Every structure is written in structure tokens, then in C-alpha cells.
Amino acid sequence: MNRHTYSLVAAIALALTAAWSLSSCSSSSNPTNSGGPPPPPNAISIAGFAFNPASLTVKAGSKVTWTNNDNTTHTVTSDDGTFTSSGNLASGAVYQFAFSSAGTFHYHCTIHPTMTGTITVTP
């Protein structure tokens, strides 16, 4: 090979390396970008027979949104009766509750009582 061929091969290799480096920085390779809308603030996912996060702290007046991402039905029911999802939440269903006063509110799924969570409301 002559010097011109070596230069051409080196330039192509450099261009491919740069293209690969730039493609690895794109948002399409970012595992946290699901392509859908971002979750609402104060969101709790029901998945894997658990409330995620299991504990959440919000300010009084905040709305909490539970979304059932499991393939089975669940409920969101406070231990003291302060709030409850109206009936069973099928897969994909959403329940929201606005917490107007400060306190600690424990809740569970009435169908699967080992599923528990806590909402702490600050003034």
C-alpha cells in the first residue's frame, strides 16, 4: 500500500469511530427514556405485587397517582379508611387522591394484604 491508501484507511477508521461515539450518546440509547410521557409527580407504580415507591412524602394539598402496571387486579385502600380506590383497579387503571391534611397514611391492597405502602403528608 502507498502512503495515500494508508491515509484514506486511517481517515475512514477515524470517521467510523467518531460516528460510533456520537451514536452511543443519543437519547435513543438512554434506558431511562421510555419514549412515553413522563410519570406524573407523586406517582406510585403498582408492579410486581408491590407499591413502588412503598413510601412517599408529599406536601398537604398534593395529589398522589397510583397506576396498576401489573397484569392482575389490585386496590389502594388506606388502613384507617381515609381513602380507597373505588373498586378494583384492573391492569392499566389509575387512582388519584388529594391529601388535604398532614399526617402519615398507611395503605394496602385488600386483594393482596402483603402489599403495603405509606404516604407521609407534611404541612
UniProtKB/TrEMBL annotation:
Keyword terms, alphabetized: Copper, Electron transport, Metal-binding, Periplasm, Signal, Transport
Gene Ontology MF terms: copper ion binding; electron transfer activity
Cofactor note: Binds 1 copper ion per subunit.
A single Gene Ontology CC term: periplasmic space
Cofactor section: Cu cation
Segments forming domain EfeO-type cupredoxin-like: 29-121
Short name of any one Pfam family annotated for the protein: Cupredoxin_1
Principal place of residence: periplasm
Subcellular location: Periplasm
Signal peptide: 1-29
Sites where the protein binds Cu cation: H74, C109, H112, M115
PANTHER family with a match to the protein in the record: BLL1555 PROTEIN
Name of the protein described by the UniProt record: EfeO-type cupredoxin-like domain-containing protein
